[in-house]
């Protein structure tokens, strides 16, 4: 065992996940790019394809929003929670300026920014409208800052306080200047930024405001409330009470409301997963976009009204047109934002299926949207696809009721990835619980998994563990499940030759139990010959083919239930690692003895499939990397992250990987935290070194902007004096290959007559001659190389000349004999060019003999 790795060598880095729906996305002025807030990073996506285009970094804390610069639509401005303002040119990703807003004008208490806007006032000056509040407070304050200096312009104008969420404020234009609208529970504030005039309106009864939006040109405000109503407010004049109209369709609270760019229509969305388009002049005239994947969080519109962005709770942004036709989707990581509800008043875990590795694609598999599992590639950082496991419609929530949907709680793959097993569950404590075990087979033609066997109630009401046999014995693959009926069941793959269906199916082959103890985790040995099952505080070892008990390993009867069991790998195959809330225990199945035990409040245990390493995560987020044959850890890092770690898994490297950290040589350990982000531990110094080396080796042509003009710039300028010791490649590739490919590229029925194609094709094979201003011919590269080498080139497609440096005594002799050789080569090249030129002027009517009679007639 080597020395334990130092903590300072590794840093936590985010590789995926994270929310793209916390803040409202923004369209570019031409409506072709969508800017999305992703933590402290701003990302740009293509509207047509939904693919990531660029990332804009520099903020030190999470961004609260992104807007377009009113003076330059090619610039975007983002603000962080701590008041850091950065402006980029989004076309070149160049950071134009960085500004720190002066938040300490009032006091030095920590302040957090909730939202911000950048707008041009009636005096044609750009101002920053900031919504901020103190930490651990539910109220926020609106202030105006100078966009150039970052100093306060107006403080607490109107003395209004608003709710501290992203939908609590809005800004809009009018004929008299900018107005700001804010909500606080059942209060609505409308404030003029020019004179500070404020109007307050109360909402009666048990209703309160949930979102607000301002008309782009008029003094009009739209609000949504918790009863599902849309209210349109007008008449904000001094001395008069505003009036409002009621538009009602939603049954759940309205989560966002947005005006069209001209203010003719209003869009609303909420928990029903339905986008509603209202006509401002007719409350009964509306259209719907139903059956969105999840509840609506934000609504965004482009300035030309050609694109609508709908942020849904599955961490996706649906891009549609005004006719509700789907254009694309921005989604790289899906989830159910809220913890899965297993019963009313009993929220379940955030990701009940945890993290599982797909051996076929080396991707991570975890819960996606409700009833689905997602395949996320950690190497390309893309979402491969979602698999609908339950095959059920998503049931939205109802007012005053908790609707429980069927959710996937367990996922397992066979060693080759040919088989997938899932467990889905629904229990609302009112009707009989639903529990299904499904086996899926991979369909190579469809490139996805197809359902093979579905088993109702494999256990009483829930399943605790699900695992496949690592390798089939006697050509029979097995799987094991444990449940709340204190039993484990072994499932086998058999041939089905019934009258109604033929093929392979899964059946229950045997059932095991031990002293009526509750059953928990399971683990197969590497060679599949043994099965370890945790019963209470005991670890039992069985032969899976015959379901025979071999031994029972118990350290103390007073210990708590074993929560984790895992066989070792490679040289630790004879060891079993078990864990309880009190500690980690390692057993030797050969000697049936306890090798070592350490106190550790384990929460997660993960094994590296390519080595004998294991990772243990405690309830306090302490990470320990160890080998089962030694109690001394290889690496330890306390307080890995501030959030809670809910799952962890090793993913092998797909290519050769070098790392200064020994335990990261074969695989990378990924964490999933309560913020729904994928995290890894990386080498900060090593990554910077690799990046710097990679940048130095990038050709200069790739560093230039990809424009037609940049393609004309030479990558480097060759000198007339060449290194005599350097290898020179006279020719690479097949001569005429490009011309032939261009000739065969168009479809046959669209090609012009052959007589028009022969001349350009032959001309493409001629070496172009370039002349100087004085009329003399320049030496091409081949002639220069042959001249410098003093050797004749051969006729092969690729020739490499290795010149021999001459001695001092032979210099004069070599110079005397070099000129005739070069002249002879020039003569040979001139003859070849003359022959090709003559071919170009020959009659090519012979080509018509190669064509069918019909084609020849039509051509003539």
Write the layout of secondary structure elements.
Layout: E1 10-17, E2 26-27, E3 33-38, E4 41-46, E5 52-56, E6 63-69, E7 72-80, E8 84-89, E9 94-100, E10 111-120, E11 126-134, E12 139-146, E13 152-154, E14 161-163, E15 169-174, E16 177-184, E17 187-192, E18 198-202, E19 209-214, E20 221-225, E21 229-234, E22 243-248, E23 254-259, E24 265-270, E25 275-279, E26 282-289, E27 296-301, E28 308-312, E29 316-320, E30 326-330, E31 341-343, E32 346-347, E33 356-358, E34 363-367, E35 372-377, E36 382-388, E37 407-413, E38 419-426, E39 434-443, E40 448-456, E41 463-468, E42 478-483, E43 488-497, E44 502-512, E45 519-524, E46 531-535, E47 538-543, E48 548-554, E49 564-567, E50 575-579, E51 583-588, E52 593-599, E53 602-607, E54 614-618, E55 623-627, E56 630-637, E57 645-652, E58 667-673, E59 677-683, H1 684-697, H2 700-703, H3 708-711, E60 728-729, H4 737-744, H5 754-763, H6 781-789, E61 800-801, H7 811-840, H8 853-859
Helix pairs in contact: 5-7
- Shape designation: globular
Estimated structural class: mainly beta
Low-pLDDT segments, ≥5 res: 686-733, 769-823, 854-860
Q: Note the main sheet.
A: 5 strands, antiparallel
The CA-CA distance between the termini, in Å, is: 85 Å
Rg over alpha carbons: 35 Å
Average pLDDT across residues? 80
The percent range for helix content is: 10-25%
* SS element count, helices: 8
**Total number of strands:** 61
Strand content: 35-45%
